[in-house]
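Continuing from the previous page...

OK, I double-checked the sequence for N(alpha)-acetyltransferase 25, NatB auxiliary subunit against my notes and this is the correct one:
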Amino acid sequence: MALYKIVPKNPYYFWSVMSLIMQSISAQDENLSKTMFLPLAERMVEKMVKEDKIEAEAEVELYYMILERLEKYKEALDVVRGKLGEKLTSELQSRENKCMAMYKKLCRWPECNALSRRLLLKNSDDWQFYITYFDSVFQLIDESWTPPPEEEHSLEGEVHYTVEQAVKFIEERITEESKSSRPLRGPYLAKLELIRRLRYRGCNDEYKLGDPEELMFQYFKKFGDKPCCFTDLKVFVDLLPSSQYTKFISQLLEVIPLSATAESEIALPADIKALQQHLCVVQLSRLLGIYHAMDKKQKLTVVRELMLRYRHGLEFGKSCLKTELQFSDYYCLLAVHLLLDLWLEGEESAVWQCLTLLEEGLSHSPSNAQFKLLLIRIYCRLGAFEPVAELYSSLDAKHIQHDTIGYLLTRYAESLGHYAAASQSCNFALRFFHSNQKDTSEYIIQAYKYGAFEKIPEFIAFRNRLNSSLHFAQVRTERMLLDLLLEANISTSLEESIKSMSLSPEEDDIPWKDLRDNRDLTVLFNWDPKDRDISEEHRKLSLEEETMWLRIRSLTLRLVSGLPTLSHTIQPKNSEKTAENGVSSKIDTIRSLLQQLEAAVDSGKKFLEQKIQYPVLGPPPTRMAGFFSNGSCQCQTSLFYLVSDIYELDTNGLEDSAEIQERIGNSFKSLVDRLTDLFNKCKGDLIEVRDGTLKTHPNLLENLVFFVETISIALWVSSYCDSVLRPFKSNLQKKKKKKKESSVAMPPVFTHFLDYVTELQTLTSNVIDHIKGLEIILTALKLEDLSLKDTLLLQEEKKFTKTVQGKVQSSYHHSVQEIGELLKKRLDTIKKLKI
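Thanks. Re-ran it with the corrected sequence; updated structure tokens here:
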């Protein structure tokens, strides 16, 4: 405002108005926002309106925004319809769209109807206005609205308020379209939409709009060669009775010009148009569940046919650039979906065929993101992460995609033992989230500069959405746990590592109440029927599971970060009960976190009792089930309880603490037993050859990764035990020297601890030997001897099969090497634990 007083130019004045709106957005109290900031902003703009000083469209937009936020919809409508509204010219139909929004808010359905009708007369292909038109017609019918006598129907002109008028209007649009030089899809789809709405209201037949099956058939004849035909019809297939599905598909196939060739027994398309039509029918067959109803033999026949059509279709794309997709790529994808069905039904070789076909597809269409995404999902399901990093990198994910599809990478990198790749993928994601802060501020500055005021709240909402991202919280937590796993007590001490991360057990920086699930769970194309597709329930359950797992991981991290804060200091007895300046002592924080961890684990176990099965291409499940079933969870919680006991021993001293010492001794014994059980669950072949087919066991790899993590926590806790017991021992030795007694009885806790450390050392050595054995087996595995039992494989497919199996073998080898290297470093740490 001070700037405006010096240089009285409108932009400076409206900057101060916008700053009031910003204060209203950031105000915690909504009442304050609506009673102080926004009314003040409104008065400031009204002053300029009265003085006729409004010059730019941005100033009108700002006035409209203020009135909308104040819920003064009538006044906002008057602004848009009045003289000021004439300035709204930068966006196509900006004025009409704003009027429509206000009519809806004010429930002025006659105006909504008349305006949408008028706009459809101008452009009968604008789908959003068909939806508004139908909404308003049925609202008027429900309200039994009739036009006022001898007056205009509404501010916007004539109103349609009966079904008959709506039917006639749509029929007129179709007649008009037939005279148009360019075919328009809108009117035909509007007719199907009207049938659907009438059916929903239970009054379709009396209006004789036609049979949906016939209308869809006619639509296919007109637009079947367009890639959008399938997505258009997908919305309306529920209008068909299930008994008519096969007949409908046969009817569509009859109109496609396919011709049989001498080399092939299958009739193939002669041009791209016919290929697109046939592709549309194949996609509809999958959507209507026709392929799902087939048995194994029929499915394999369809896969063979689809791949034959795919390879034939490559002829049409010989001139395509590397960055362009082949016309027949969807045939390959559909064949893979059928093979995935067979895999889920227990056909092990089908998954290798999936990978083979996708790798072949990718060689012809190197820019096809769907091939890459599907390969990523399948490789991860098989436990092979190595090829995934390269595939994800070639996707060239931009900006917000690091949040929406980043989960495909970060979910599996660490859990499959690729620590270096996990570190890199977390860095990738975090770099985006951190730069978002700086970038968003820059966008806001530019919006102020160019008067794009309505964009500023959007930028702020975008920034808040990213700051509250579930993926951001997960990556941050996993990255810190990973850094501790790779460095704490190896290259730097645990205390230094925690200090460098500014970690504090008391602080929880995850916005639990505002967490946003920004994952794109529909990024993979899917032609499954509704009952097999990802439902809203799946999304909800997945978010719940991800949040529970994040809570467990976050509490584990905070408990680990609390260990150095308990470092040995001589304190009076019962000092854990005292608190300084009302701040609870460090051990109280640890115990409180431990209780929260127990509660989170209980919630997680209850959740898993539901035995939820997500669709194969739906959200990937978390690592929570493995964490509970392999015993890592019990081990880690026992370790943190041990910390509490050791602290108690530290504050009570060695005298009169026989009970605590016995408890600690028992804890040591049960921990070794539990760790041994966990190791037993890691035993077995990671890759085995069964009936000429490869079978991978990714769960063994995940168990090994959990073992390394648990043994690392055990070592950090052991270091704390060491720091407590070492001063006790040196004090006892001093007493022994003073008294010159040869037999001062050593408290049992020292023996328990030394036995525990020795057993940890032996166990870790055994695991390292087991890993060496796995490496030898993986290296010796002769994949050339494998032959997939199905004779589906053609010669060109065999080379891709070899590539795929080689990638999986190499990835497992890499995982085992990285896990082995880390365990060796941990073994060196154990050897230093001598009191």
